[in-house]
Design a protein that fits this description.
Number of strands: 10
CATH topology: TIM Barrel
CATH class: Alpha Beta
Largest sheet: 8 strands, parallel
Number of helices: 12
Order of helices and strands: EEEHEHEHEHEHEHEHHHEHHH
Bound molecules: NADP nicotinamide-adenine-dinucleotide phosphate
Shape: globular
CATH architecture: Alpha-Beta Barrel
Number of domains: 1
Distance between the termini: 39 Å
Strand content: 5-15%
Radius of gyration: 19 Å
Structural class: alpha/beta
């Protein structure tokens, strides 16, 4: 697998990152171990989890299945979402971050986290409190780098500005939702990350499975899938609307044309998009992993890229259209 810089750091990560959100949920421990072993054997070195995934179970499994191979892996986890019933069991306060970094280290069975990410913006904590705490963790050696997830562009720009002014460790990466279905970050976040040199680690690159082509318009969502088995939305922000079906059709057409699967086409589009570091793939079994490993190492033709961009077009709105017009 190709290696890419983790933003402006000297650390290199594989062009696919393995997400551990299914560990302890769709994938039991034995399956999770087989998935991680195969991913590392295929040349991957980047694994992403979060304290909140199955309330710590994903981190525990990740820690156990990485035993003996920890040094080979750039390990990412996150903090921010609710871990208990108390008023301080959530958020990005110094108190919550400090307690949770210790809990994550314990569950992961490691002395350090390579990339510690804030899972989402926190309206209730001053940004200075959060960033200074993260800076301390880097200096204490508990954390190598810090990253953000689910930030708006103004929030990320403000955080980068504060870190620069105070000489604190800056966020080196952003983990946003990004796929052919969910292209909103192209308005502001992606240009900001490219300008500031942040790594971009897209989550739900298959829009939760929609882009695998397993769902068909007008038919019930099949059992044994995220869409068919849970009440939760397939992806947190998007639904199977007309635009999504149009995109799935375009992905299927390109896939048929070149003898790949729809999932491979959708992942390939993302992995080689300018500014993208490593899409975070999620799988429930070894078969899905094997198929998704086939998404890299080849390129879509210009005509195919155009067809995908056309089908997934979205309204950019003001001021983006105006700026483009002024520049033309
Ligand atoms: N920062 C955040 O807020 C955030 C949010 C979500 C996820 N994440 C991270 O991103 C990772 C990936 O997210 P995601 O799981 O939503 O990614 P995704 O790639 O959009 O969806 C993965 C799901 O699609 C289906 N799938 C995957 N490969 C397939 C294949 N080859 N054929 C058919 N179906 C396939 C599987 O679901 P079924 O088999 O159940 O259909 C799988 O669980 C997570 O593990 C986590 O690390 C972060």
């Amino acid at each position: 697998m190709e290696m890419r810089a983790l933003g402006r750091t000297g650390t290199r990560v594989s062009e696919l990152c393995l997400g551990a959100m299914t560990f302890g949920r769709e994938a039991d421990e034995a399956t999770s171990k087989a998935i991680v072993d195969r991913f590392l054997d295929a040349g991957g070195n980047f694994v992403d989890t979060a304290n909140v995934y199955s309330l710590g179970v994903s981190e525990e499994i990740t820690g156990r299945v990485l035993a003996g191979r920890r040094d080979d892996v750039v390990l990412a986890t996150k903090v921010r979402f609710t871990m208990g019933d108390g008023p301080n069991d959530v958020g990005l306060s110094r108190r919550h971050i400090r307690m949770n970094v210790e809990a994550s280290l314990r569950r992961l069975g490691t002395d350090w986290i390579d990339l510690y990410q804030v899972h989402c913006w926190d309206n209730h904590t001053p940004l200075e409190e959060t960033i200074s705490t993260l800076d301390d963790l880097v200096h204490e050696g508990k954390v190598r780098y810090v990253g953000a997830s689910n930030y708006a562009a103004w929030q990320l720009a403000k955080a980068l500005g504060i870190a620069a002014l105070r000489n604190w460790e800056p966020f080196v990466s952003l983990q946003p939702e990004y796929s052919l279905v969910t292209r909103d970050i192209e308005r502001e976040l992606l240009p900001l990350c490219r300008d500031a040199g942040l790594a971009v680690l897209p989550w739900s690159p298959l829009a939760g499975g929609i882009l695998s082509g397993k769902y068909h318009q007008g038919q019930d969502l099949p059992k044994g899938t995220r869409g068919g088995d849970t009440e939760e939305p397939i992806t947190f922000t998007y639904r199977l609307d007309d635009r999504a079906w149009r995109i799935v059709d375009a992905v299927r057409t390109v896939a048929d044309e070149i003898g790949k699967t729809p999932a491979q086409v959708a992942l390939n589009w993302l992995a080689y998009r300018p500014g993208i570091t490593s899409p975070i793939i999620g799988v429930r079994n070894l078969g899905q992993l094997e198929a998704n490993l086939g998404a890299i190492g080849w390129r879509l033709e210009d005509e195919q890229l155009k067809a995908l961009l056309w089908a997934s077009a979205f309204p950019r709105g003001y001021p983006y259209d105006f700026i483009e017009y002024a520049d033309s």
